[in-house]
Amino acid sequence: MPDLPARTWFEYGAREGIPRLLELWDRHGVRVTSHMVGRAVERYPALAREIVARGHEAAAHGHTWTPHWTLSADEERASYRANVAAIEQATGTRPVGFNAFWLRGTPRTLGILQALGFRYHVDDLSADEPMTTTVNGRPFAIVPYTLRNNDIARFGAEGPLSAAAFGQELRDEFDQLYAEAAQRRRMMSISTHDRIAGTPARVKVLGDFLAYARRHPGVAFLRKDAIAELALALPDVPVK
């Protein structure tokens, strides 16, 4: 039996959330990374193309939301290849970044990704700055994810925050990291999902935060692929 309310919730993300968020990013001159599920790209190819045409990065998120840890090595590799093919066909770009379903890859994941030409993954919660790791004797970048500054966690069923409270959390997080950045490299990641953060009230809060952050000297808004390339190029990036 199909879950019709869930289906329409995801449709809201495509119909309302993504256009609203794209307008927000344009208004503030921010370019972001969009982790795209292959099947979703196949269903909405024009939307995937528009995201890339506006200057945003198309990164991978698996071909479906089948948990990656349930797949055999061949199935896992096939899923990532299909995801890459869907993104390439729709956008003309090849993804170099990856986010596993609920961050949970397998011991094989990074090796498979590197063999497919990926440069980084985000499935790490252990730092507030980019890192590198070694995969098959070669460096591979880590651009850490966040569960704190994350709409799917903060607006969940368990004690959800109001939009205003989420905005205050973002400002508090930014203020602390900005102060620390006087002494060391700092990065702030904010994770948004079109069907969740793309509502009117939450987009307003995100816009207010972007305006606040942009008033601070020395702040750069970067796509994850750009952060990954910095991590791979700089000599003093932590190695995990």
TrEMBL record:
SUPFAM superfamilies: Glycoside hydrolase/deacetylase
Domain NodB homology: 3-222
InterPro entries: Glyco_hydro/deAcase_b/a-brl (IPR011330), NODB_dom (IPR002509)
Protein name per UniProt: Polysaccharide deacetylase
Origin organism lineage: Bacteria, Pseudomonadati, Pseudomonadota, Gammaproteobacteria, Candidatus Competibacteraceae
One of the protein's GO biological processes: carbohydrate metabolic process
Organism this protein belongs to: Plasticicumulans lactativorans
GO MF term set: hydrolase activity, acting on carbon-nitrogen (but not peptide) bonds
Domain of life: Bacteria
